[in-house]
Specification:
35% of the residues lie in helices and 22% in strands. The longest helix has 14 residues. It folds into two domains: 126 residues, Rossmann fold (3-Layer(aba) Sandwich); 112 residues, 2-Layer Sandwich (Dihydrodipicolinate Reductase, domain 2), CATH 3.30.360.10. Helix 1 packs across helix 10. Strand 11 and strand 12 form a beta hairpin. It has 270 residues and is of the alpha/beta class. The chain has a five-stranded mixed sheet with strand order 7-8-6-9-10. It has a three-stranded parallel sheet with strand order 3-4-5, covered by helices on one side. The protein contains ten helices and twelve strands. The structure holds nicotinamide-adenine-dinucleotide. The site of nicotinamide-adenine-dinucleotide has 30 residues, from helix 1, helix 4, helix 9 and strand 12.
Length: 270
């Protein structure tokens, strides 16, 4: 596992408790060695090895799956390297796949070597229906994400446009655009927009609205997808993950579930 922050630590706990199926955590890496040490210390027996860098991590014998829970930049650099080293990948920083050239490279590399890149649903629901609907065609896809203003602090779009989040006193639309623009403007907030895009009609056609709402304690994502099949609407109200108020608990749970599915004999859902 690369990245021993909020999601990494939650995943490690689930692996240790047997909630993630037949998975063994062999080696971890974090750019902050103390974060890796804090994670490893929680393991009673067979503590995972702490790698000193990504090269040593990928050279570690016996690993079949690399879990990325570190950030978009790490994902961009690491996924092609991991595939070339013969490892499957599970990717949390799905915003990295907003780059069409990288997406294409990953697709081609994984296909050529017969490996998989798993992208858990993360903080949204309804992707099962969207994927199925795409077979018959999707006319339009949209996500409205509502967050407490504080959750948006530091995002490039907020900084570049001089938006004063302290002055947002009631529900206010902050951004409207497509998922590509959303991923650029809010790299840490709108992984969900790229997840919806990749399950559906792609980032340039997927509409994104971002709302700041000071009355909210949770991040709320509402997707609406229309096509000849009918309409999918799915609303998810996310409690924050203990350890990182910017990260939704469901995102970590979806990764645990994805790991568990890899070792289950029956595959539920599309
Ligand atoms: N798909 C989704 O719906 C979804 C939801 C929430 C979070 N995420 C993404 O998952 C990722 C992890 O989230 P989190 O809440 O655990 O974040 P976090 O900040 O709590 O943890 C990230 C960890 O990665 C480490 N890290 C940073 N740069 C690194 C590098 N170059 N090499 C190795 N380690 C590095 C940090 O030191 C930190 O320990 C983020 O990119 C976040 O945007 C995705």
């Amino acid at each position: 596992m690369i990245g021993c922050g909020a999601i990494g630590t939650t995943l490690a706990g689930a692996i240790q408790d047997g909630k993630a199926g037949d998975v063994h955590l062999d080696v971890v890496y974090d750019v902050l060695p103390e974060s890796a040490s804090q994670l490893v210390v929680k393991f009673n027996a067979e503590k995972p090895h702490i790698a000193a860098n990504i090269g040593e991590f990928l050279d570690h014998r016996g690993i079949t799956l690399v879990i990325e829970a570190a950030g978009q930049q790490v994902a961009k650099e690491m996924v092609p390297m991991a595939l070339k080293a013969g490892k499957n990948v599970m990717l949390m920083s799905v915003g990295a796949l907003a780059d069409p050239a990288l997406l294409d490279e990953i697709y081609r590399t994984a296909s050529a070597v017969g490996l998989k890149v798993y992208v858990p649903s993360g903080a949204i629901t309804g992707l099962d229906g969207v994927k199925a609907a795409l077979i018959a065609g999707i006319d339009d896809a949209m996500i409205v994400s509502s967050k407490p203003p504080e959750a948006l602090r530091g995002a490039p779009f907020i900084v570049e446009n001089g938006i004063e989040l302290d002055k947002v006193k009631s529900r206010q639309k902050i951004f409207e655009g497509n998922a590509l623009e959303a991923a650029r403007g809010f790299p840490q907030n709108l992984n969900v927009a790229i997840s919806l895009s990749l399950a559906g009609i792609g980032p340039s056609k997927t509409k994104v609205v971002l709302v700041a709402d000071p009355s909210l304690k949770k991040n709320v994502h509402e997707i609406t997808v229309r096509g000849p099949f009918g309409v999918v609407t799915a609303k998810t109200e996310n409690s924050a993950l203990p350890g990182n108020p910017k990260t939704s608990w469901l995102a970590a749970l979806s990764a645990i579930r994805k790991l568990r599915d890899l070792s289950e004999p029956i595959s539920m859902g599309t």
